[in-house]
Amino acid sequence: MKITPTTEDRFWAVLSHLSALALGLGILLPIIGWSEQRNKSKYASFQCLQALGYQSLGYTVWILFYLVMVILFMVVFIFAISAAGNDRTIITTWISILLFVIFGLFGIYLLFPVIAALACALGRDFRYPIMGNRLASYLGYEALNENDEPAPLIVEHEDRWVAAMGYFSVIIALWGLIAPVTTWILQGRQNVFLKFQSMQTTVFQAAVNILYMGAGVVYFLGAIAVLAITGLEGDPGQSSPANMFGLVIFMLSFLVASVLMLIVPLFHIFGQWAGYRVLKGDDYHYPFVGRLVENWIVKNSVLKEKTV
Q1: Stated pTM of the model
Q2: Are 246 and 230 spatial neighbours (Cβ–Cβ below 8 Å)?
């Protein structure tokens, strides 16, 4: 195992950290870097896995933090408006503060990967706050072998970290699919554990994205139906049977879309729980999806053996 980072090591580390600036789309680069360097460089592997964690687990934490901050701010904002009355100066000030908080936190989120990339470009051993040292301990990054030489990373924990990040990335709409799909493609042939975990995560995330997009489609179709029906009457304000029918369709579509949008966060929570279970050492199976994927893998393995 290499002790000091080479130019190639630093390249993958820098690229993996900077990929966070792509806001979800870049999540495939840390997986590619880790797959390329896992048996070559301890330094590059750790930095790629750390970058993957920041874009998946870290993104989840930042989203939750955002929501808490915005909710607290809105509560204070409502009380401030009530106290201000018609004083627009106070209202404008609070809106400015809200925008500053939103964009400020977003800027901080993007700042850490830039700092990480600069540190790795100089060959430094960068650690993200809170996560970095914990991940190093989990992977055995600083462990020594019996000859007091740097020991390789714990292979099982590497696999579990990558699989868990695929679960956590479910909160990233659409682009979160990139993590399990990339892992499946790059590690599926030689790693049975990652093949199964990434496959069932892909199926699960695909279902979540279908629900998410389905809600938008239902709402959009309802709105189109209203416009089409009321347009036939010429005056949307009239209480004609056609207008009432269009209103009913719109309300039904809005209700269905709302139900779907409320279900999606439950699937997000389910994905986070699955990732936590995998990190804790469980061979996690999603209900129904896990058995379906497992049967598919076994069936294809049998077919390959018969072909050979």
Answers
A1: 0.85
A2: yes
